[in-house]
Amino acid sequence: MAQTPTVRTAGKSGPAEWRNWAGNVRSRPTRVVTPTSVGELQEAVRRAAEQGLRVKAVGTGHSFTAAAATDGVLLRPQALAGIQEVDRAAGTVTVAAGTVLKDLNLALAAQGLSLTNMGDIMEQTVSGATSTGTHGTGRDSASIAAQIRALDLVTADGRLLHCSEKENPDVFAAARLGIGALGVITSLTLAVEPLFFLTAREEPMGFDRVTAEFDEHVAENEHFEFYWFPHTGNCNTKRNNRSQGPAAPPGPVSAWIEDELLSNGVFQAVNSLGRAVPAAIPGIAKVASRALSARTYTDVPYKVFTSPRRVRFVEMEYALPRERAVEALRELKSVVDRSRLRISFPVEVRTAPADDITLSTASGRESAYIAVHMYRGTPYQAYFTAAERIFTEYGGRPHWGKVHTRDAEYLAGVYPRFGEFTALRDRLDPDRLFGNDYLRRVLGA
Questions:
Q1: Is the pLDDT of residue 10 over 60?
Q2: Report field, pTM of the whole predicted structure over 0.90
Q3: Disulfide check for 433: which of 104, 112, 156, 260 has CB 3.0–4.6 Å away?
C-alpha cells in the first residue's frame, strides 16, 4: 500500500511561514504537501488545479529570489530522493529530484563515479540547483543543468512527460533550466564519469595582475576563479586541474583553520563587526586579504569544488559576455573605491563555456560571472543597484536564483530564445498553475 503523503493546511496552527536560506524571501502557502511517490505528486498537482490553487516545488531554499514562493500548494520533494539507476555503459545516473547534492556526490563517489563539474556548495536539491542554473567555473565544462541527459516532468494537467534529445526535445531544451515555470521535475538523468582527482592551487594575487592575465588563466586551467576583496587591491585565485593523484588533502588542522575557523568562524565575527561598525570594514578587509596564503592540495572533485558556507548572505550574480567581464569588474571597483559603500564580502568571478539550454545564463555565448554579496541583515540595495547598473550596460544576464530587478522586457533583449521559452510555457501551462509573482515579472503575464 502506498504511503500517504504528508499534508499540512494553513490555519491558526499552520503551516508555518516558509523562508528561504538567506531569510530575504517569505511566503505562507495554503497547503504543504510532501509526496512519497510520483503518483502522489501528480495527484497533488491535479487536486490543486481543481481547487484553483497555484503550485510550487521547493528544495532547500538556497535561491535568493522568490522563484519558489507561493500562497497555494507548496510541494516538498525531499521524500523523492536517491539514485534510481546507474548506467555505466551510457555514463549516466538517474536520480530522484529531491536528492540533495551532497548525498548524490557521496553516493557517486562510493560507486567510483563523479559529476564533471559542480558549484561551490552542495546543500541544494538536484532539481532546485538545475532549475535555477547553479554552476561552478569551467573552461570546457558547464553548469549542472548542462550535464542533464533526460528528465521527467509533471505538467499542469498531471501528466508525466519524459524529455530528452530524442523525446520531447523542445521541452528538454527548456526544462533543464525551467525556473519551475513548466512543471515539477520528478527525476533527472545526469552524465557522470569515472571518479578522478583534482589538484587545487590557491594563490593570492593583485587585482591588476589577475585582471590583466584573466584570459591567460582561463585558457591554461580547466577551472579558474578568483575573489576580489573590496576596498583593497587584493585577490585570491583558485585553479583546479585534473591530476593522476594520489589524494593529498589539506591536513585536518590546516583544513579546520582554513575552511572552518577562517572561512566560517572568523568570517562570521568579522561580518558581524562590520554590520555594527561599517567604518571598520575597509581596514578589516585590508588585514584579512593580506593574511591569505598559498596552498595546494589534491582530492576527489566534490571535496575540491565545494566547501562549507555557514555565514549567511544575500547575493546578486550576472553572466556577462566573457570578453567584457574584466572591463565591467574594473568599473565596479572604481565605483566602490569612489563611494561610501562598505563591502565586507569578496566579489567572486567564474567562467562557463556556451551551452544550448534555452534560458541558461550561458546560452549561446561564452560567459563570465561576477557575483556580489552582502552579509545577511546588512542593507544591500545601494551596492546591488550600483553593480546591476554596470552589469546591464554590458548585456548581463542575471542568475535566475539570485537577487536582481530585471523584468521580461529586459530579459527578452538578452536571451535570443526567450520567446521560444514563453511559447512553450503557454502550451504547457496556459493557466499558470505553476506561476507566481516572480515568474510574472521575469517571464511576463
A1: no
A2: yes
A3: 156
**Grid cell listed for 185:** 521535475
How far apart CA 147 and CA 352 sit, in angstroms, is: 13
pLDDT-wise least confident of 9-23, 134-148, 241-255, 277-291: 9-23
Closest Cα to residue 141, out of 398, 351, 400, 305? 351
pLDDT at 382 over 90: yes
The cell numbers describing 422, all together, are 514563453
Cα separation, 441 vs 437, in Å, equals 6
Distant-in-sequence, close-in-space partners of 317: CB < 8 Å, separation ≥ 6? 348, 369, 370, 371, 372, 398, 399, 402
Per-residue pLDDT at 283: 84
Per-residue pLDDT tens over the stretch 173-204: 999 999 999 999 999 999 999 999 999 999 99
Annotate the chain with three-state secondary structure.
CCCCCEEEECECCECCCEECCCCCCEECCCEEEECCCHHHHHHHHHHHHHHCCCEEECCCCCCCCCCCCCCCEEECHHHCCCEEEEECCCCEEEEECCCEHHHHHHHHHHCCEECCCCCCCCCCEHHHHHHHCCCCCCCCCCCCHHHEEEEEEECCCCCEEEEECCCCHHHHHHHCCCCCCCCEEEEEEEECEECCEEEEEEEEEEHHHHHHCHHHHHHHCCEEEEEECCCCCEEEEEEEEEECCCCECCCHHHHHHHHHHHHHHHHHHHHHHHHHCHHHHHHHHHHHHHCCCCEEEEECHHHHHCCCCCCCEEEEEEEEEHHHHHHHHHHHHHHHHHCCCCCCCCEEEEEECCECCCCCCCECCCEEEEEEEEECCCCCHHHHHHHHHHHHHCCCEECCCCCCCCCHHHHHHHCCCHHHHHHHHHHHCCCCCCCCHHHHHHHCC
Judge contact between 52 and 29, C-beta under 8 A.
Answer: no
| Per-residue cell: 326 | 574584466
Query: Given the DSSP bridges, would you call strands 148-154 and 160-164 parallel, antiparallel or unpaired?
Result: antiparallel
More confident residue, 376 or 149: 149
Cell numbers for 189, please give them: 538523468
CB atoms < 10 A from the CB of 336, how many?
20
